[in-house]
């Protein structure tokens, strides 16, 4: 067995490198470490299926004959894999961009000082003419940006820049990249950030959560856009507006958004400023209170056209009946290749789901002849047809099956899958 893995406390460069390596070694399993950085955890929860990842938990290392490691050259940084170090017939391949020798005695070593490890693998993919999707291009660009500070760190090389451009040529989505990026703040900016967290106003625009903060600030703060951006991210907001005095009766408005439903550039133009859909700014005359009210009015007058579950829901192809036995339900699961199926009664009322996980929990023969309703998972996240796709995506992280039942007045109306939401996100 050939596996690919990366270091624990996985960042975007490590994840991107591991996925890129799977294009070079398509026979290998992609083993994700247990500990992930928060942004990576969020990304993985949405993209798990399309990235074809497998958890480190439950992996039997005794069957591993080849190991490919990305973004590290040290056994100590891997997730409980040091037992492989003593395996004499193990072939190891290392792809790393960190200088210095690691503890892994690699059979094949690819080690060069680039800003991001994924750059090395992307160059190899390009040389082999590997085909990949815009989703993969987006992850690869995230990996480059994560380790190069969006190509601004001194460690950034021309090779990183070339590969970043290559990802954009192949459909990388900068909206998604921006949503998962972060920036460090110094003490003065962090103090402002803490004040914003405590004093900001949060309002709703449809299903969107928008934060507004109007604060007096000291002179010399040059990272106000980053403060607003981080305020948006930490608070889990779809958009954030910061209003800061720039002089007597002169206010700067800085806006950031990760919601495609909002066009901040258009909103700021209505206030005399400008920008693009994800970021905008304006300078207004007036007191802090007056400008705050003007921004509120601008937000409330903005029309938001949100896509709903109804647009992407599909009929459920296979159902289980409340009258089915556990044995019958297990046979149907096996024949359909599904990991879980919804269960309904004679009136099509949704009762819950029956899954492979339930089958694995069976310990007594008599359980096979019970009604499937005796072993249902009733705590199943569900959506209604008029719920927004944003709401469905939020619930999807709680779904073990990659789909959500769509319920209308207690009846099963259809289903929506993780794949369909992803395809909609990337405008496929």
UniProtKB/TrEMBL annotation:
What PANTHER family does the record tag this protein with?
A-ADDING TRNA NUCLEOTIDYLTRANSFERASE, POLYA POLYMERASE
The family this protein is said to belong to: Belongs to the tRNA nucleotidyltransferase/poly(A) polymerase family.
| Keyword Cell wall biogenesis/degradation attributed | no
Q: Which GO terms describe its molecular function?
A: hydrolase activity; metal ion binding; nucleotide binding; nucleotidyltransferase activity; RNA binding
RNA-binding: is it a keyword of this entry? yes
CBS domain segment(s)? 313-370, 376-428
The alphabetical list of record keywords is: CBS domain, Hydrolase, Magnesium, Metal-binding, Nucleotide-binding, Nucleotidyltransferase, RNA-binding, Transferase, tRNA processing
**What GO biological process, any one, is recorded here?**
tRNA processing
Protein name, per record = NanoRNase/pAp phosphatase (C-di-AMP/oligoRNAs hydrolase)
Q: Which cofactor does it need?
A: Mg(2+)
């Amino acid at each position: 067995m050939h596996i690919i893995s990366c270091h624990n406390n996985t960042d975007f460069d490590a994840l991107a490198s591991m996925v890129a390596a799977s294009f070079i070694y398509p026979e290998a399993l992609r083993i994700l470490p247990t500990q992930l950085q928060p942004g990576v955890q969020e990304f993985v929860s949405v993209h798990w299926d399309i990235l074809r990842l497998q958890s480190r938990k439950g992996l039997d290392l005794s069957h591993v004959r080849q190991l490919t490691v990305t973004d590290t050259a040290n056994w100590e940084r891997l997730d409980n894999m040091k037992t492989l170090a003593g395996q004499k017939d193990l072939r190891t391949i290392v792809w790393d961009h960190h200088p210095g020798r690691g503890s892994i005695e690699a059979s094949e070593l690819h080690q060069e000082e680039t800003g991001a490890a994924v750059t090395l693998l992307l160059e190899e993919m390009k040389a082999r003419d590997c085909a990949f999707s815009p989703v993969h291009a987006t992850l690869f660009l995230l990996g480059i940006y994560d380790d190069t500070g969006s190509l601004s760190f001194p460690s950034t090389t021309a090779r990183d820049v070339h590969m970043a451009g290559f990802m954009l040529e192949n459909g990388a989505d900068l909206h998604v990249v921006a949503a998962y990026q972060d920036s460090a703040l110094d003490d003065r900016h962090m103090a402002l950030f803490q004040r914003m967290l405590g004093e900001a106003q949060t309002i709703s625009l449809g299903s969107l959560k928008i934060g507004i903060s109007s604060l007096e600030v000291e002179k010399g703060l040059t990272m106000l856009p980053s403060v607003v951006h981080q305020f948006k991210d930490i608070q889990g907001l779809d958009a954030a507006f910061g209003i800061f005095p720039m002089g007597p009766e002169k206010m700067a408005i800085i806006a950031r958004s990760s919601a495609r439903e909002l066009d901040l550039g258009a909103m700021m133009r209505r206030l005399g400023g400008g920008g693009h859909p994800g970021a905008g700014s304006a300078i207004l005359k007036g007191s802090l209170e007056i400008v705050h009210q003007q921004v509120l009015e601008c937000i409330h007058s903005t029309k938001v056209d949100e896509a709903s579950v109804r647009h992407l829901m599909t009929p459920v192809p296979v159902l289980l009946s409340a009258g089915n036995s556990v044995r019958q339900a297990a046979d149907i699961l096996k024949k359909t290749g599904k990991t879980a199926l919804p269960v309904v009664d004679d009136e099509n009322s949704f009762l819950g789901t029956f899954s492979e996980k339930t089958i694995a929990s069976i310990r007594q023969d008599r359980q096979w002849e019970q009604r499937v309703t005796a072993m249902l998972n009733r705590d199943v996240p569900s959506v209604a047809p008029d719920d927004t796709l944003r709401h469905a995506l939020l619930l999807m992280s709680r779904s073990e099956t990659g789909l959500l039942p769509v319920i209308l007045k207690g009846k099963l109306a259809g289903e929506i899958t993780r794949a369909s939401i992803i395809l909609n996100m990337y405008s496929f």
